[in-house]
Amino acid sequence: MSDKLSCELSKHEYFEGERTMASGEDTELSVSEQVARSASVYAAELDPGVLQLTLMLYRTMSVFDRAHTAELSPHGLNLVQFNVISVLHRVGRPLTMGELAHAVSVRPANLTSVVDGLEKNSLVDRRLNPDDRRSFLVGLTPTGEEFLAGFLPGHWRYLQSLTSGLSPRQRKQLTTLLERLMRSVQEADAPAQPPVPAGPSTAAS
């Protein structure tokens, strides 16, 4: 096998490993083992610490999402829907679709179907914005408020159990670091795009 082909196969294994790790499917290959494998292929370009952090974020969020799904699915809700009604509850007033999309970090175009589902279940209502009739306001209904009043106390206890492996001081430190990381990601330059191949020449032969 040529060195070039061997390298390409190794790169394929790396990307497959990263995809699997992100989805939480791989329970045997540890983060450290994946980082070591990638470092052997991309030694010149790769900072192992950056990859280790990235994979741990993927894995943690995958586990966290599964825990929330297990809590919410008996109520017919997904995580985005729960975030929407939680934000409306905390803000205490109806929000425009744009405000709501920003608050839950969802594209406005993707929020419509989320609100449709919540409206169908009578948890939110949607009405024309009297200050701008080109937009809608979304607010909690009495049914939504009643659901949260019964659900949230147990939810807070569940969050406490999920983070019980960290001390209050560690949770505060982690929150600060994640805020810094979020700003770093938001401020990072967009990745360079590969050049677009030139089309076939139209010059006369």
From TrEMBL:
InterPro entries: HTH_MarR-typ, MarR/SlyA-like, Tscrpt_reg_MarR-type_CS, WH-like_DNA-bd_sf, WH_DNA-bd_sf. Keywords: DNA-binding, Transcription, Transcription regulation. It holds the Pfam family MarR. Residues 43-183 form the HTH marR-type domain. SUPFAM superfamilies: Winged helix' DNA-binding domain. Residues 185-205 are annotated as: Disordered. This is MarR family transcriptional regulator.
